[in-house]
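Appendix B. One record, verbatim.
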Amino acid sequence: MKQNKNILVGIFTFFMIVFTGILILWQTDIIRKVQGYSVTGEFVHIGGLLDGAVVRYRGYPVVHVTSIKPGPEKIEVSFFVAKNIIIPVNSTVKILFDGLVGENYVSVEPATDNGSYIKDNAILRGHLASDLATFIDLGSQNLMHSEAILTTVKKIVTNPELVKNLNSIISNIYLVTNQLAKQVKNGNLTTIITNINQSTSSLNEILYNFKDKTSKHSLISIQKEIFLLVNGLQKIEKNISTISSQENSNKIKNILTNIENSSEKVSNYLGASKKDSLISSIGKLQLSTQTKVLYDSTNNNGYFNSDIEFKVGKYSLISGISNTYGEIKLMNFQHGYQINKFLKTRLGIINDAEGIGIDFHPYQKLKFSMQYYNFDETNYTLGTKYSIYNSVDLEMLYKNDTKITNPGIDVGVSYQF
């Protein structure tokens, strides 16, 4: 009886050992490792993939991840594939997210079957697809940034000091526009443009005489044309002198004072320290004008440019009209700064576009200038001016402008007072 019990215990133990061995072989995929082949996927980021995760081929689970080896530049994810599973060469592996509450898994994305298949110890290129966790993380970061922006905007909008300053600025701008409207209603600008057109017609005839090589006009005829041009410029001077009267100068001072008050309020809001007023400390406003008429030798046409400069100390405001592109309109509106007696800089609108300018005055009668404008098209001008008689200058200008057919040299005269 005792012997029968020992036999039963032995048989039971034998079956338990066999069952345990089969279980170990099944769980460790030893048979697949012996009969199959090893595949390694190289990733930059695995997005939380765990050791033992499912590996799917065409969506069907075929094996589990056996090892994950992080490295300084990449992470290697290895698994064994049964020999009956054929994977084409140039296939890739991708880490995907299994539903809303599932885990990450490895998906083998097969390439086109061209008759070549991967072998043992094959290395496949891997990449991480966008998963829900990444999406939620990016969304939370964006919400945090949005909250910070909205908080800042709320502080600015609800600041009573800002509202007060904005109301004051709008009031000052209203006063400035009223003053400018009164100057336009006086008709001074229309009269100036009329006289400039007459001067342009006279200069065009002079330039035509210079251009026509077979012309029989004598120097006396050219002198008469210049005399007519000077008369036209004198008329312009008389009209501009009306604008530069004491009454209009006071109005312009009021305009600049209002602008200064607006700028001071903005500076105070931004935290700048209060300083003495620039306009009140410098004193009397200075006014100067310049009109030049040039001939474009490359495109065979003439044009004019008339500027008015309001100067206070080292600072100046320059505005001018021109028909450089055919139509008479406001082409220049610049802020100038006199660095020293030789050098002056300008910043603002040049030839109807954003630009900067530099004027160099090495001698009393000689001046060089450079302008760079319309930054998208890289337009520029290089000019020189030489005084030939009192306020009359001979000017030469090289212009490279995309709105004009061909670049070239322009010549003409300018009159300033």
